């Protein structure tokens, strides 16, 4: 009888503990708030914020939805982070990968440096990522190919290098991608985006394209291919053949022979 009494007491204590301290559901708003606070504070700790845009971000707070530059859904999930044009510097923290419900990240027009965290690839609900006009370096993470909901990607005007990951062709929902004005190299994969921009990368050329200045010129028009409306493959054509250069020299000498003397003589003064 005593053993049964002890057992009943233990059960009663366990039930009262559950009612007093409910468990946090991994898919609930409480869980999201907890990990969003940790993720956002991790980002703040690695950023220099001269204008105080993130001043009210507080690690003791349980409600990041009240913080500046943070957007939440009606049910309290962090779905947006927009801190553009705030002169932020420093680096991007890997904790950004813990914002599992985020759909929009706008950090353009700042001075953020360092690498793009590969952890961004875990943001399965992300639809818009704009890191343009910063000082980011290193390679484009291949993990970005895991962003199956991504529709808008801007990484232009940075110092990114290396090849464009071929795995980005898996982003079938992508509508727009801008990788211009970086230091990217290698071949250009067949990007699925309706519009793309790769102009201004000095080490990148499509098959059959000729390197011209800080980009690649279309062999037919001389224009840099800046969108999917421009062809990605270029015929070798006469421009790459020796016959073209022979013809060019031929017409040059013909012009000299039949031009008035004044056009190719020089006055020499003692």
Features:
seven-stranded mixed sheet; disordered C terminus; single chain; alpha/beta; 270 residues; 20% helix
Mind explaining what this structure looks like?
- The protein is α/β, with parallel strands linked by helices and 270 residues long.
- A hairpin with a 5-residue loop joins strand 2 (70-72) and strand 3 (78-82).
- The strands form three sheets. Strands 1-4-6-8-10-12-14 form a seven-stranded mixed β-sheet.
- The chain has three helices and 16 strands.
Q: Flag low-confidence runs.
A: 6-26, 207-270
N→C terminal distance: 129 Å
Mean of pLDDT: 75
Quaternary structure annotation: single chain
State the helicity in percent bands.
Answer: 10-25%
Strand order of the largest sheet: 1-4-6-8-10-12-14
Count helical runs: 3
What overall form do the CA principal axes indicate?
A: globular
From N to C, what is the helix and strand string?
A: HHEEEEEEEEEEEEEEEEH
Largest sheet: 7 strands, mixed
Class by SSE composition:
alpha/beta
Compute the number of strand runs: 16
| CA-based gyration radius | 29 Å
Beta strand %: 15-25%
């Amino acid at each position: 009888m005593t053993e049964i009494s002890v057992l009943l007491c233990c059960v009663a204590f366990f039930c009262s503990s559950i009612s007093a301290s409910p468990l946090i559901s991994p898919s609930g708003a409480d869980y999201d708030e907890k990990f969003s606070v940790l993720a956002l504070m991790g980002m703040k700790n690695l950023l220099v914020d001269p204008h105080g845009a993130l001043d009210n971000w507080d690690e003791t707070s349980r409600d990041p939805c009240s913080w500046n530059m943070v957007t939440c859904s009606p049910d309290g999930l962090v779905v947006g982070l927009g801190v553009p044009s705030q002169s932020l510097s420093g680096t991007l923290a890997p904790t950004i990968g813990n914002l599992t419900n985020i759909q929009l990240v706008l950090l353009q027009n700042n001075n953020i440096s360092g690498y793009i965290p590969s952890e961004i690839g875990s943001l399965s609900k992300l639809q818009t990522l704009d890191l343009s006009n910063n000082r980011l370096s290193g390679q484009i993470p291949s993990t970005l190919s895991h962003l199956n909901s991504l529709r808008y990607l801007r990484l232009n005007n940075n110092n990114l290098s290396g090849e464009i990951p071929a795995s980005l062709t898996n982003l079938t929902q992508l509508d727009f991608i801008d990788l211009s004005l970086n230091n990217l190299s290698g071949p250009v994969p067949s990007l699925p985006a309706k519009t793309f921009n790769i102009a201004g990368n000095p080490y990148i050329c499509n098959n059959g394209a000729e390197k011209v200045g800080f980009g690649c010129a279309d062999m037919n028009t001389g224009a840099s291919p800046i969108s999917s409306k421009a062809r990605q493959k270029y015929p070798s054509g006469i421009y790459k053949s020796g016959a073209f250069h022979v013809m060019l020299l031929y017409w040059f000498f013909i012009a000299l022979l039949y031009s008035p003397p004044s056009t190719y003589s020089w006055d020499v003064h003692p």
